[in-house]
Every structure is written in C-alpha cells, then in structure tokens.
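Researcher: I'd like a candidate sequence for this fold, 182 residues long. If you have to choose between options at a position, lean toward the conservative one.
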C-alpha cells in the first residue's frame, strides 16, 4: 500500500488557492480539503503527471506484485484517478509520456514470474466471441509467446477510444458498485 508521504507528494500539486469554483461543496479526504465540483485549475497535467510518476516509480522500486501496483496506482481509488478525477483530465494524462512510463512499469511487473499469489482475489469473466476472433487471439498470443489469458489482460488494460465502444444502453444515472461513473 502507498504511504501517506507518497500520497502527500501528489497532494502538493493541488494548491486550491485562487481557483474559481462552481460548487460550494467542500469535503475532507484523508485530512485534506478537497473541492467538489468543477474547478478551473491552473495546475498543468504535466506537473501533476510528474508527481504521479514519481509516486509510481517509488512504489515500483519497492517491489510490489503487478496486481497491487495496478490497484494502488491505476485502480479506481489509485493515485492516477485521485490526481485526474474527471474523464477529460484522465484522458489528457493518458496521452502523456508519464502515463506511458507507468504502463511500462506495469508491464515489467507482469513479466516477473511470481510464485507468491497476489493478496487480491481474482474474478472470472466469461465472454462470447466469434470463433474467428478467438482464433485470432490464440494466434496473437502464440506470436507473443504468452498465454491467451495474459494477452487478454494486457488488452483489457489498454486505453481505448470511446468512439470504438458500442453503446448498447442509455447512460447510467448512477455508477455500479466499484465504479466511479466518471
């Protein structure tokens, strides 16, 4: 788990003085005031990105398993989503070199052969896909000299363009459990 010091390093990038706020709502998160609502921030994506990368690099160097790294850095309540809470801010960060470096760290951790199982439980999903797509995934996994499971996990963790995801139902009014809806 990330230390309070690591979290404070990212929080230092959030100087809320002088911001225009469209909401009067203020909440306390981990002992710090966090402004809830749309904020016109002058903090650059680059500055926050460097702070997030620094935290991720320190955590990476502590030798976590890939699941723990993903949860603490890229997960729903991780450092990245804390620093970039809106879809627009997250998309901007995902286009940076800092995000690419974090993805490389995750890839390196996934390449390690771990004998010890991660502390997080795993879930199983079943998907229906055409035979031709299944065969294509098998061939791709073979060409990368990896399992189909590892290939699919890699593909699931990639950035996708919203326009490439078919929208089958109307927008959600509330997020499902475990999702932020952002």
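Model: Candidate sequence:
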């Amino acid at each position: 788990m990330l230390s309070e010091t690591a979290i404070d390093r990212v929080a230092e990038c959030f100087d809320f003085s002088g911001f225009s706020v469209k909401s009067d709502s203020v909440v306390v998160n981990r002992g710090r005031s966090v402004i809830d609502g749309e904020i016109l921030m002058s903090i650059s994506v680059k500055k926050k990105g460097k702070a997030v990368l620094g935290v991720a690099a320190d955590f990476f160097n502590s030798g976590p398993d890939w699941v723990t790294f993903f949860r603490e850095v890229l997960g729903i309540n991780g450092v990245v989503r804390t620093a970039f809470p809106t879809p627009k801010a997250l998309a901007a960060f995902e286009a940076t070199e800092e995000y690419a470096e974090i993805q490389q760290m995750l890839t390196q951790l996934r390449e390690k052969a771990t004998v010890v199982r991660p502390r997080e439980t795993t879930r199983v999903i079943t998907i229906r896909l055409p035979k031709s797509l299944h065969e294509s995934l098998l061939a791709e996994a073979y060409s990368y000299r990896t399992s189909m499971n590892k290939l699919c996990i890699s593909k699931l963790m990639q950035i996708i363009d919203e326009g490439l995801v078919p929208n089958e139902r109307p927008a959600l009014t509330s997020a499902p459990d475990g999702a932020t809806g952002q």
